[in-house]
Amino acid sequence: MLRYTQLKDDKRQSLRDIIPLDKPFTLVVEPSSLCNFRCSMCFQSTVENGYFAVNKHNMPLDTFKLIMNQMSQWGGDKLKVLKLSLYGEPFVNPNFCDMLALARDAEIAKRIETTSNVSLLTPQISEGLINGGLDYIRVSIYSPLQDKHEQITSSQIKIDIIRRNLETLQELKMKHNSKTPFVAVKMLDTYGEENDLFRKMYEGVADEIYIEKPHNWVASEEKSFIDSLYGEKNANVAKELAKNDNHCVACGVSFYTLSVRNNGDVAPCCVDWSGGTNIGNIFDMPLKEIWQGERMRLFWIMQLEGRNFENASCRNCQVYKSNYYSKDNVDGVSTERFKL
Question: Rounded to an integer, what distance in angstroms lies between the CA atom of residue 167 and that of residue 303?
Answer without folding.
Answer: 44
